[in-house]
Q: What sequence folds into this?
């Protein structure tokens, strides 16, 4: 099995669209598809504050996300204080990079709902795409020292910290061209599992 690494045509995009993506991330607003294609995880940020309007848009995109049975059980902790960002880093096992972010959002969900992690993933992705649409990069982590995190951020027992997102302007520009993704012909079957899609 190959991993599609470094293969610019692994997702089969026509060339004019690829050029447009590069152009869009340099300067202009993207459409949804371009936003998805060009988005990568960002874990290194420059020291530049993200404006409150953009933060508001990111949170609004969370609010507008659909959840299972429309229960909207999620809650969000916005972390902007530098000391609290450092604390988040210390409370993490796989997201120490969060200390360099401009701000973070802790996504809390109700673990008694069997679909709560699906809801967490959807709301995280919507916030990340909204941020990227504004040129703001983001990364997520899931590895946490739960007891410490709960204690430091006063998280109630009935909610689980499912995902933590860090946001900021990226240190390095990215077009998403170097993403390591499997090609579609290794992912998609026609009508039944195992049948070729070609
Ligand atoms: C469910 C899930 C858990 C993840 N956990 C972490 C994590 O703990 N720490 C981290 O730095 N990145 C984490 N990531 C980010 C992945 O590493 C990233 O999506 C993947 O490497 C692709 O990155 P790219 O879009 O930049 O190519 C997680 C992503 C998902 C979807």
A:
């Amino acid at each position: 099995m190959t991993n599609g690494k470094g293969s610019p045509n692994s997702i089969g995009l026509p060339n004019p669209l690829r050029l447009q993506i590069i152009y869009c991330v340099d300067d202009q607003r993207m459409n949804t598809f371009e936003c998805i294609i060009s988005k990568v995880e960002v874990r290194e940020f420059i020291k530049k504050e993200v404006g409150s309007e953009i933060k508001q848009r990111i949170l609004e995109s969370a609010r507008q996300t659909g959840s299972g049975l429309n229960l909207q059980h999620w809650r969000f902790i916005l972390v902007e204080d530098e000391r609290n960002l450092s604390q988040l880093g210390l409370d993490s096992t796989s997201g120490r990079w969060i200390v360099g972010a401009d701000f973070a959002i802790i996504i809390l969900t109700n673990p008694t709902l069997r679909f709560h992690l699906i809801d967490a993933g959807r709301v995280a992705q919507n916030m990340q795409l909204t941020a990227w649409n504004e040129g703001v990069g983001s990364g997520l982590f899931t590895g946490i020292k739960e007891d410490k995190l709960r204690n430091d951020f006063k998280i109630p027992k009935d909610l689980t910290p499912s995902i933590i997102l860090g946001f900021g302007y990226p240190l390095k520009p990215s077009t998403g061209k170097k993403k390591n993704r499997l090609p579609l012909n290794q992912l998609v079957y026609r009508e039944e599992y195992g049948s070729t899609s070609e």
